[in-house]
Write a structure and sequence with these properties.
By secondary structure, this protein is an alpha+beta fold. Helix content is 40%, strand content 10%. Strand 1 and strand 2 form a beta hairpin. Helix 1 crosses helix 2. It is elongated and about 60 Å long.
Length: 77
């Protein structure tokens, strides 16, 4: 969980820095909105990190593997 947690903290701190540059007293609501607008051109996860209209990472992919006899097989169904 280390790299995703580091990336999340980086997004929050970047958003807070941007918000503080724009406003003297940032609010929680403004920070939450700014997080959704924050893009990291390069993240520890291996590329750009930005969010869609639902707050999910853009281009995120999820994989499930089954291990059988020491071999990893991608589960597609």
């Amino acid at each position: 969980f280390g790299p995703p947690t580091y990336a999340a903290a980086n997004v929050i701190l970047t958003a807070l820095t941007d918000l503080c540059e724009e406003s003297e007293e940032p609010t929680r609501e403004a920070l939450a909105e700014q997080i959704g607008e924050t893009t990291l051109p390069q993240s520890i996860l291996g590329g750009e990190l930005a969010f869609d209209e639902n707050g999910d990472p853009q281009g995120a992919q999820f994989y499930i593997f089954q291990i059988d006899g020491g071999e990893y097989t991608l589960v597609t169904d």
